[in-house]
Design goal:
Shape: globular
CATH class: Alpha Beta
Structural class: alpha+beta
Strand content: over 45%
Order of helices and strands: HEEEHEEE
Number of helices: 2
Helix content: 10-25%
Largest sheet: 6 strands, antiparallel
CATH architecture: 2-Layer Sandwich
CATH topology: Beta-Lactamase
Length: 103
């Protein structure tokens, strides 16, 4: 299963609405947020973070269908470069229409 698919499944299961990946020169961390509050933090190997950044570099948005519950999500991706490192923000919006899985 692809890395992005796994992340989305984790986010949906944890009932979070945002994933924030912050990549620094030697390390990276993934934050699961619900309404702006950090619910869980996952340290990443920088190699894995690199793969994720490369995979999502060209994706602005896409749809995601969660098969267990049948819920659909619209995923919005935003990149930011900050002093602390590169930041990738993934926002999940729940939608009520059929979705196309982009991966």
């Amino acid at each position: 299963m692809e890395l992005m698919q796994l992340l989305l499944e984790e986010a949906v299961e944890a009932d979070t609405d945002q994933l924030v990946l912050i990549r620094r020169s030697q390390s990276a961390s993934l934050y699961f947020l619900t309404e702006g509050e950090v619910k869980r933090t996952v340290p990443f190997q920088s190699e894995l973070a690199q793969q994720l950044f490369e995979k999502l570099q060209d994706i602005q948005s896409c749809n995601y269908h969660e098969s267990k519950t049948g819920r659909n999500f619209y995923l919005e991706c935003r990149f930011m470069r900050q002093e602390m490192g590169e930041c990738l923000l993934l926002v999940l919006h729940q939608i009520n229409k059929p979705a196309i899985v982009a991966w």
